Please model this.
Amino acid sequence: MKIIVTSIFVQDQDKALEFYSEKLGFVKKEDVPVGEFRWISLVSPDNQDGVELLLEPNDHPASKEFQKKIYNEGIPATMFGVVDIRKEYERLMKNGVKFSMEPTKMGEVTIAVFDDTCGNLIQIVQK
Model:
């Protein structure tokens, strides 16, 4: 068994697609109508056959509450791995990404946290 898709709740699928592809650099893999929403998934440009990130519409009251609560508590919704966190931090800053935590060493890892503009905090980590 392996993970093939993981999802993140987003307030606006179009805005999220733009942010995750244009600002972060992920590659759109799927964009298929599913009822009133779309199945939109992205992959890493370095592993286009790898795990897909699904931009899940935040339409259900439970998902809205969950997303809002973890955001307000400062809890990242997910984590992305990077090879060089300083380089990635600088690249994302140049792309207009707003960080709530700059790269910070925590034991064996260095982490940083940014706002995806779609209702989530996202953590990047260098091991």
About this structure: The domain at 5-126 is CATH 3.10.180.10 (2,3-Dihydroxybiphenyl 1,2-Dioxygenase; domain 1).
